[in-house]
Amino acid sequence: MTIAAGFRFADGVLLCADTQLTYQGVAKVSGTKIFPFEFKRNGSRAVFTFSGDVKYARGGITKCVRTIAKLDLSSVSREELENAISDSLNDYFQKLIYKHPYYRTMGGPDFNFVVGLWSPKDGLGLYETTDAVITEVSDSDKFAITGVGETLGRYLGGPMMGHSGYSLTDISTISAHVLSEVKENVDGCGKGSEFIVLTKEGLFSSIGGYGTSHIEDVFAALHQSVTGMFLELCDLDKPGEEGVIERLDALRSLVISCRQQMLREKEKHRGLEHLMEILTDWKVRRID
Questions:
Q1: Are 192 and 59 in a shared domain?
Q2: Residue 64: Cβ within 10 Å count
Q3: 157 in the same domain as 84
């Protein structure tokens, strides 16, 4: 029960998830669903997020990480990283998941990943898994979403993701909006939102702080104002254009007010941006 997603953008991939962990379909606690790794032996990078059973998913991540860590090639390729994950998941699912009596049922052991992989040999890729099958998210696909919030997430994200060349600022806004709407409207998704970026240079960074905190309230206000303007525009029984002009003026004032508020918040949180970078660096697990 979750939403986890990955978005391609101009300078890398962004992975995000809600932070509500559900155990045995009942207990709901806060926790991370994003796990970044650096592999010193072969120089590669990997970041996982997941949907599905928490314990089995974490076990699957551990198995994948151990397999990647054994690749001692001086310059491992993304294909080799992909094969390592595929082999690990196939073994894991054959031994533990497919034989489970509650496989493919509510509360069963099933899980899926969204994965960012970086190789010093051939760079960055975004991937998603379905059971033990891993596939790359292409330039035309643009993003991957998994979990109970997938349907609504794709409905919201599809029209906004016109291409995969967005800036970090734009992709942060899109992903934060998708997560906030899913958490608001889909049971089983909730708590906070977590984001991490893996760049084309193989660097991890956070987009936290003011980068996303303002988006939920701003969108709610804009949505209400635009809805009012739409209704006024379509009401052809009212003579003249005064109502439409009033709505446009109100929308303009709202946009300016929101923009000014966001700029003030940005100034207040400049120190937080640095803190988030430190915390992201602390979170990355470096595997010998």
A1: yes
A2: 26
A3: yes
